[in-house]
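The records we work with from here on pair a chain with its fold. Here is one such record, which you should read through line by line:
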Amino acid sequence: MAPWIRRNIPDAFFQELEGLVAGVSGGEDTDPMDVIMSNVSQDLSMTFGCTSIVAFGEATASGTLYHARNLDNISMMDRAQYGYVVVYEPDQGYPFITCIYPTHAGVMQAMNNQGITVSMSYSLVDRFANSLDGTAMLFLMRQIVQYASSLGEAVEIVLGTPRTFGMNIAISDSKIPDAVVLEVDANRFAIRKAEEGLLTATNRYHSEYMRQFQAPGWLASERRDQRIAQFLAKHYGEIRVESMVELLRDRGEVGSAEYDGLLDGVNNTGSMLSCVFFPAEQMMWVSIPGEGRGSPDNEFYAFSLAAALAGEEPAIFSRNIAPTKVDRNLANWLLVREATIAYSQNRLAEALDYLDQLDPEFSDVEAAVNLRAHTYLWLGNQAEAQRCFQILADRPHVSEPYYLLEALAILGSLHDTAGERSAAVEYYQAALAVEVADLAGSTPFYRQLAEVGLRRPVYLEFSGSSYHFTTRDSALARFFKAPQAIPSNYADLYRQYDGMQIANVRILGAHRTDQGLISRILQLEPGLPFDYSRFAAGKRRLDALGALEQVKMYLVPVGENAVDIVVRISEGFGLYLDPVQFVVENALNLSHKTVALRYYNVAGTLTSIGGGYSFGPSRSKAASLTFPLGSWPAALRYQSQAIHTKLGWGTHAGSEYSQARKDASFSISVPIGGHSAVGLTLGYSQSQVEDISTTTGLVVPDGDYVTLAATVQTGLPGNTTWTQEGTSLQATAAVLVDRQDLAENYASWQIRARNLSYLGAGFVVRLEISAAWTQHGTPFDRRLRLGGGGELGAGSPMFVGEMNVHSNLELRRYFTHDLEAHVNYEVAKIWEDVSDCAHSHSLHSVGAGLSYQTPIGLKLRAQYSKNLTLADTHSFSLGIVSTF
């Protein structure tokens, strides 16, 4: 079982799942993974269509609260018939009633005996706003209904739980009465309140804040939202259970274009469960599909939670609500429904058979023509598909604008395929003129298809039982096409909230980590004014500890002058942060004859310990301890190793020596603001020369030294994800003191400047310039070093001196967001003796290579480099640049 799945399942629910497996298998099976997957699979296969409606107060006939919902998921229609009503009486929490499916321990809608009701709809968000390391939707919904006795408690359960995906969660409390819709993604949220006793939710966000995170594409909600508002306005003040059922069955005003066109509405093809909660009487009415009908049009069965809890029969058949009466419109819509289900299951011939059974007056209605066009397209019948799409395009009014957008864009491609470029352009232009109110994002597919089609032909090609659109560019041309740079402007996004009051700091994902410790490190408290610099510094302190797999922080406006800070952490699992990372890093270590282990976040204290041993020539032994010292990240490190140095350049070329060296250090980092920091290091180093071979008079003394170093760095972030490092400047000053003779000490300093800039068309330039100096007479093994497999070519020898200046200019070209090629030129000037500045050496090298960031985070690089100054110093390398 994936450990991040288990840790996000509440223990009581996990125990219930284990009991379910044991009971069904007669005790022969104890692995609950299969039933767990059925509970979390909803978070992996999200679909549109669900609707929630709450009405109370002046909106209803009695002033009491009603909560209605359609659960829509066409991909689960085969499971719909197995839904069953269950009353839970948990050991902890409140009894509740729901309708669920076999193997489910979670719920998708429910009502408890405290008057709390809940339902949800998916609202797709950008992939970066999702997370698999969170509580699955079914379990979150159950937590609400089982543990909340008030609206406020229910809201806090949602906001205090690490979530997975985008949702609209409708929650009501009949005692007040009141209701809210929580528009959420994995981390952020907005609370939408009822207005005049009414509140609804479909599959899109309404709050301005959350709309910016909506995933590109068609949200299939505009017509439903408009029709629900129209219906509720017409029945305002008269709403009761029967009204809610009527609304769940609604497909538009009778006689309207939507209704006559047999389009889906609140009642749609994917409706697999419909229910109405009446908390004042603890009643639930529920319906499921059957006999060719979706759930809204079947009989609604009445169940009493109060009766069940009293030990009485919960089903009250006398209060059932009869199924929808069949008329010609419904009969024909049900045929379109069956055809749509067949189409979704790739039963294309059956889909056409159902459409052929439509009464003549309905054979060319909007829904039928649209479905027929797409079915023919999948069957490869371009002529019939084009004929049907043309019918839609020629109509003076199309009720679903998205269907018209699809038709026009596809017609453009069909004309391009036929070589009719001028006609194709006209269709693409017409497609872009279609306004679709619930089309989110800047890159929805068919709008993007039309935009590309205006610039160049887009062809429709078929392969087997599928089709695709193509510009017929060669593979090489597609490879060289630059991907779009992803902007990175978090600082600007958050600085607009400077000065607002922090209302709450919500820490999500802390299963075993001390939340108080996280708060102490962040130094962000409710009641303080928000300051971006303080916010960024807190995150950097938490990141620097390296004890967590991931730390993300978000800012959520919760009022005119208030914000919530959401801290989302992802914990590791002791010996590893990520299992793939653990395997790869240990394989790499073993290939270098090294064993290394680290234990992260010991006892939830954000302290990590590590150690390693090399059974190669270096006989290296290492130990480390990172921990929070107050709010600052600190580290203790120790290493002992055997070092063999062979000099291939300079005055002492040909000399070599071996020494045993031990190093220990204590360091602390103090982040300042968003991009600056001060670091202090106190070190102790002991070295003993074991062997030396020289004909140049090389002297390498034994040493027993104390080092004190201070580093100051600052910078500005870049504006794309490729250039996040931006511009940085770092300066370090250090003093090396002989422990046996304090008067013998050596100063040194180093300055490094780096800049990454995006040039456009996938090109990024990286420029790094550094200068370093150490006092004349510094022991040879403590002097400055360049090269040796790093700078100035991978095959270059080590360049040792007392002063150097080095620069590296690298030009990168990204072919995808993860694959880039680069060329670089390096130049360095090195002074072996700083007292003789007139005597120096200049070195030049060039290089070229490819880098690829794998989906699991591993970065691979192929590199060729050549030192232009020294002979025979070119090399080719292939390996891992960094792990995760």
